[in-house]
Design brief:
This protein has about 290 residues and is α/β, with parallel strands linked by helices. It folds into two domains: about 160 residues, Rossmann fold; about 70 residues, Orthogonal Bundle (ProC C-terminal domain-like fold), CATH 1.10.3730.10. It has twelve helices and eight strands. Helix 1 links the parallel strand 1 and strand 2. Helix 7 packs across helix 12 and helix 8 packs across helix 9.
């Protein structure tokens, strides 16, 4: 991957991507990070030896890929600068967004006509190089540009290419998914304490059990149904426990949780679309033209 990459946002997600790229062999000379906080800029430079600036234009004008990894309320400010920044060299700059809940149309409206935009939904396990990222192409992104985004995200985990209409479902399963598992671990720790274990004992037992079970599922090639059956002896302890989970509606609760997450993601995107429409109308009014 020879593209020069600007990571706009030096928070946890931006840093995780930076670390993954360097770990994969990306030369630091081909990387630049944009970060507003002076102390954080110094920290990133000291830890990774990469150029860090507070100037979006300075970073983006020499990059083939600009990754937007800021808070949602800062996206518009970044886009305004990117829209005024010439594309790098002879190739068209790709805008990759890892910001949750904002559709590619928001970026395409703000950037010059035909600008390629690619939306990514990562999750927090990318912080330990075990992320699951979904990638969706905007209207103007080519297959080669999508492949470049996939290669970039593969430096921090696994990647799946999906149509953007599935991004709300992706958010519900893998984007929010880590929180579901953490809640399960919390509950299991509490249960262990209730049964007489110390909290550190219960935490180690539950945490390593989740870690090992996840690795077994991902690396064995065996379905979760088969793995669960292998642990469940007839009339045994696991069967008794699973019976209670089913009786209290675990499957229904998980299904409702995922639907709620997806619905919230849909509503967030709709709010963004409304704001974009209002902004476009305001600009059109100021210019004395009518929107088509």
């Amino acid at each position: 991957m020879s593209e020069r990459i600007a990571i706009i946002g030096g928070g946890k997600i931006g840093e995780a991507l930076l670390a993954g790229l360097i770990r994969s062999g990306k030369p630091v000379k081909d990387l630049v990070v944009v970060e507003r906080a002076e102390a954080r800029r110094a920290e990133l430079h000291a830890d990774y030896g990469v150029r860090v600036t507070d100037d979006v234009r300075d970073a983006a004008e020499t990059a083939q890929i600009a990754v937007i990894a800021v808070k949602p309320d800062a996206v518009d400010d970044v886009l305004r600068v990117l829209a005024r920044t010439d594309d790098a060299g002879e190739s068209e700059r790709i805008t990759v967004t890892v910001v949750a809940g904002i559709p590619t149309t928001r970026y395409e409206t703000a950037l010059p006509a035909g600008a390629p935009v690619i939306r990514v939904m990562p999750n927090t396990p990318m912080l330990v190089n075990e992320g699951m990222s979904a990638v969706s192409a905007g209207r103007y992104a080519t297959e080669d540009q999508v492949a470049a985004a996939v290669a970039m995200m593969e430096t921090v985990g696994r990647v799946m290419v999906v149509p953007e209409k599935q991004m709300d479902a992706v958010t519900a399963v893998s984007g929010s998914g880590p929180a579901y598992f953490y809640l399960m671990v919390e509950a299991l720790i509490d249960a262990g304490v209730g049964l007489g274990l110390t909290r550190p004992q219960a935490a180690e037992l539950a945490g390593q059990t989740l870690r090992g079970s996840g690795l077994l599922l991902s690396e064995s090639g065996v379905s979760p149904v088969e793995l669960r059956a292998a642990v469940t002896s007839p009339a045994g302890t696991t069967a008794a426990a699973l019976r209670e989970l089913e009786r209290f509606g675990l499957r229904h609760a998980v299904g409702e949780a995922a639907r709620a997450a997806a619905h919230t993601s849909v509503q967030a995107a709709r709010r963004v679309d409304v704001e974009t429409s209002r902004s476009s109308q305001q600009v059109a009014g100021e210019l004395g033209v009518d929107e088509a």
